[in-house]
Specification:
Layout (H helix, E strand, L loop, with lengths): L1 H15 L9 H7 L8
């Protein structure tokens, strides 16, 4: 939970500066194949 708070703070700073923050949901990205083939 602690790390989530910090990521949210960084994303809020990016938005405040007029940037579009990246999508950071790792579980969703792996399930949808957005990360491509991961090497073990």
């Amino acid at each position: 939970m602690h790390g989530v708070h910090h990521r949210a703070q960084i994303l809020a700073e990016l938005r405040a500066a007029g940037h579009v923050p990246p999508y950071l949901d790792f579980v969703h990205a792996t399930r949808t194949g957005a990360l491509g083939q991961l090497r073990a």
